[in-house]
Amino acid sequence: MSDFKPKILAFLCNWCSYAGADLAGVSRIQYPPSIRVVRTMCSGRVDPLFVIQALQDGFDGVFIGGCHIGDCHYQDGNLYTLHRMDMVAHLLDISGIGRDRVHLRWASAAEAQPFADHVTEITDVITKLGPFDKTTHELPLAALARALATRRLRWLVGIDRHISEEENVYLEKTDPEHFKKVLQEAVSAEYHKGLIQELITRGPVTVREMSEKTGLPVHTISLRLNDLERSGVAELDSCEERTPKFVASAA
Amino acid sequence: MSKDKIGSVMVVGGGIGGIQSALDLANAGFLVHLVEKSPAIGGIMSALDKTFPTNDCSMCILSPKLVEVGMHKNIHLLTLSEVESLEGEAGNFKVTVREHPRYIDVTKCIACGKCAEKCPRKVEDEYNQGLSRRKAVHVPYPQAVPLKYAIDKDHCIYFEKGKCRACEKFCPADAIDFDQKEKIYMLEVGSVIVAPGFRCYNPSGTDRYGYGRLPNVVTSMEFERILSASGPFEGHLVRPSDHKKPDKIAWLQCIGSRDIREDSHGYCSGVCCMYAIKEALVAKEHAGGKLDTAIFFMDMRTHGKGFEQTYNRAKDKEGVRFIRSRVHTIEPASDTGDLSVMYVTEDGQMITETFDMVVLSVGLEISDEIKALADKLGIETDSDRFALAGGFAPVATSKPGVYVCGAFAGPKDIPQSVMEASAASAAAAALLSSVRNTLTTEKTYPSEIPVLGEKPRIGVFVCHCGTNIGGIVDVPSVKEYAATLPNVVFAADNLFTCSQDTQEIIRQKIRENHLNRVIVAACTPRTHEPLFRETIQEAGLNPYLFEFANIRDQNSWVHQQEPEAATRKAKDLIRMAAAKASLLEAIEPLKIEVNPNALVIGGGVAGMSAALNLADQGFKTFLIERESQLGGNALHIRQTWNGHNVGAFVGELKKSVESHKNIEVLSGTEIAAIDGFVGNFTSTVQTGDVRREIQHGAVILATGGRASEPDEYLYGKSSRVMKWHELDYLFEKEPDKLEKATGVAFIQCVGSREPDHPYCSKVCCTASVQSAIRLKEKKPYLRVYILYRDMRTFGQREELYRKAREMGVIFIRYSVNEKPMVEKDGEDGLLITVRDHVLGRQIRIPADYLNLATAILPTEGQKQIAQMLKVPINDEGFYLEAHIKLRPVDFSTDGVFVCGLCHYPKPIEEAIAQAQAAAARTAGLLMKKTIDIEPIVSVVDEKKCIGCGLCELSCSFSAIRLKKVVGKGYRAENYSALCKGCGVCAAACPQHAIDMKHFREVQIRAAIHAGCTECADPVREAA
């Protein structure tokens, strides 16, 4: 067993999980000194981008604590968190970082022991994963940040509940499974675009080079690059012999 | 009323009860004269180390209240003062108060302590229970309010011999004034609240326990001081004789209580079981788990909310030994100071055990001085010297217009005292509602120092919190570290950052160092942020230029075995706070109007009492009752523990409520929905098929409770097995059944104190004992058995228990592991088999009837109402108040209050007191025309917004909506009064066009970044 002690960023909502954490203190329930807490009023304040930033800054993992479903002080803020963190987990998986770096847990203001148990459990999981190396994951993280900042993903994840739980103007409800598929496709597309965008911003690069750096098939790169060209983000820079090189368009 | 009413109230006694009454009244528009006989307020609570059951540091939770009293514009504090006489009548009293000289000019004293340093006379320090010595000039304790020195005339050398005056010579402020004379004040007040508290029983009058003779026999109060960081041994757990760390400590319960010998008291003091458990747990914590603790008790009376669970934790998890035995003598074991305790175990063995220390759990009593005060005020007391309170008016004394709260009205704990204190203030406010706001002045703040565009200048105050933080975290090194952080220009550490003198220090440091941001690293923002925001506001800073680093509740308390890691974590948290603080902005206050109407949910005794008090205070109140008639559970109750007729009272109460011009009763009505927020709620209520909307500014939850239906002891299978009041009813309706009966049994704790409902239902022991007495009165030869686990006739109810035993009621204690067996005996009879604890063998009891005291549960539908209002409930389904000790009727959610059985099982008079307390807190809110609401709201950057409307969809409060903008289509707009500040919209916005005040993206990102830019982890540093 190594003596690696992970450092985990914890976003705790003021009304439930932060209060539960305080109660753990009042009850003197001991847990590992791994978390560094950022208090937010609601877990719904936690922008997925904050989670990515934590990893970029070198935290070994992230813990998001909210009220139990149905108990949110703001009615349903935690439902948005749930949807967003689902998306984050999926993105972490496809980026190779893995969803185990980020954990969403519920703890009420009265749940001191469960809160401490969450911290202990998450710390164990992340300890087993070992230190998070932000430099090897530099590219995927940058791509994740780009993907999570896109209008498309933010809109999709935000609208999810409203079209799968309620009827739209045509009195239709979207099938949640179908929506999930749409979202997942969008997630990988945006992530791949994020990777390409990141690379072309760093200088002229060929499709093959991009494929090598990202591990994506050449076909996928070409497809996404096409999208980027069409939306005016990427452009042809030059040709080395007969191989074209691409760069980011000047803004 | 013959004379004009006066809009001021005198509160006599500056303990926690008096403090709460004073604050409630002062915040409700009345001028308060708070009279305290000692040099500072705080009372007994200020000398406690921790509080049961949460082990909250007593000073930490009390201190904000002390400070609030000290700073309150409408509280006139008279220390070293005593009431001499009271004349006049309710609404218009004249009180004569004698103020003893302090011999120090409080306007000049800067509490530097030079006088005490130079004073040559040492005397016993009463704050530390005589375990240490203080000077003749002193402050009672470091966080005292007012923090002004006082010369103790009885011990001052100058007053004894005519010379010395060393203090005068060295005082840098010229504050010593030996010429001060006694002053007599004549004060006109509309009402008086008496809260003189209690005195601990003094066991030195009896030699049984060797107290006074054996130095390592201490009272529980002395032990509190030994445990305290500000105590005689600075929080090191050592025994008095040789300062050795004890390995074994015993607690002896019921010292001076439940003892009818002449030098003692027959009543149960009602708090000692809890504090003994607390002291044992805290002592174990101090000793790092190696300490052996044993509590010798008769009945373990952990009858309050969360109490039983803490008892179980102490017993099952923490290894505190609980020994059911009353120890009669303590002998010295040898000349080492060890003590020999002889006791008989439950199975009859004689055991002699040696302990390093013995703590006497002394009871509460009323001193001659308090009795004399009662006589001066002309209020009656009972044979135990407690104030005679009205049966259904728990805070009314025998004299109209004079109210009582706290232990003077019967032995009780802090939450109950706080409830009564608020109840007393409600009673006084109802009497004086016509003259509200006639004598008060409003608080004003200095104009704000502009900080926009200024370079951040941060001050960091790191709290030791006694030893709570300082005992684990290396506070001086944290402070040193904080001083090196970017933008930090000042750093300090304080023993208690929340004390009043520290507030002055903070203000002074803000001025001296031109600080424009302040960080306090201490307990938790959830309890202490308001205090510090207020402090910086008084120094001219916008209250939102404050940031908290939680290094106690989420650090030192949860990493007690890892001081180094906790110190590193504290540094990280302060670095994160400083990063955020650098980017904090001033935020304009947001005011909203308050609807002055109240809504009370539940028309039982609690709900009706709350509604009636609010109505008497002049607030229009809607009372919602699900059933067709008012009354709730009280409709089935015959009498209170002290014999008052409940039926007659409920009838009167219903009449008053139904005929009150300010109350609208809606019976047969349920709550369909509650929307809105503090000051502006809209509830939809449904009566039959009719729906109606009600606008109100506050809600009181009084939804009541119900008795559980047992599925054991043949309940439902034999007509001879009943529960609660069913047996009483049967005998009343069919007296011949009692006539024919020869034996009746009661079983206690049916469903209570068991895994499904681990709490004690509090009222059942008293109820069964009362029933037993009634049966014995009607039929002296009836055999009556009570099968119990611990007899919890707390407080003066003990008298009933004694009476029942005298009358021949047979009490048989059973163990939860070996519960009684009930079988049918022929057609009509029952046969109960139980192991008798005295005989040590199974006995069989033939009985004609069996009555079960079943657990009290929250009412059905409580959870739904909790969800509508977003207020928490605990594991057992009862509402969870904001703070179990000091905010017993509030929720963390503003504008919502709680009382009665839905909070926890309780007897009727406690439910009434809590109802009045809830009314007091509600009135404090409703009397305001406007209140400041949290201005942490969303802001929209119209330039970035594309009008997609996702924010509008995501907002549950309609606080952000699309509006038409000419030439641009739609843009989002924030409605600040509706915005709750959750930030869901900001995290949702596809355009990053929305941000949250005080939780801005840049602020959060800065905090995250600061958390890891310097990984203080040693493994990482090495790598």
Report on this structure:
The complex is a heterodimer of chains A (251) and B (1023). Chain A has helices at 17-26, 48-56, 77-94, 112-129, 138-149, 151-164, 176-201, 207-214, 218-230; strands at 8-13, 35-40, 61-66, 102-106, 205-206, 234-240, 243-248. Chain A is built from 9 helices and 7 strands. The relative contact order of chain A is 0.12. Chain A is globular, with a radius of gyration of 20 Å. The model of chain A has no long low-confidence stretch (mean pLDDT 92). In chain A, helix 7 (176-201) packs across helix 9. Chain A folds into 2 domains: 8-129, Rossmann fold; 150-248, Orthogonal Bundle (Arc Repressor Mutant, subunit A), CATH 1.10.10. In chain A, strands 2-1-3-4 form a 4-stranded parallel sheet, with helices on both faces. In chain A, strands 5-7-6 form a 3-stranded antiparallel sheet. The longest helix of chain A is centred in the last third of the chain and has 26 residues, at 176-201. Chain A has 251 residues and is an alpha/beta fold. Chain B has a 5-stranded parallel sheet. Chain B has 1023 residues and is an alpha/beta fold. Chain B contains 27 helices and 52 strands. Chain B has 7 domains: 1-100 and 182-198 and 366-448, FAD/NAD(P)-binding domain (3-Layer(bba) Sandwich); 101-180, Alpha-Beta Plaits (2-Layer Sandwich), CATH 3.30.70; 203-361, FAD/NAD(P)-binding domain; 458-585, Rossmann fold, CATH 3.40.50; 598-704 and 859-928, FAD/NAD(P)-binding domain, CATH 3.50.50; 708-855, FAD/NAD(P)-binding domain, CATH 3.50.50; 937-996, 2-Layer Sandwich (Alpha-Beta Plaits). In chain B, strand 33 and strand 34 (680-687) form a beta hairpin. Residues 1015-1023 of chain B have low confidence and may be disordered. The interface between A and B is large, with 64 and 69 residues.
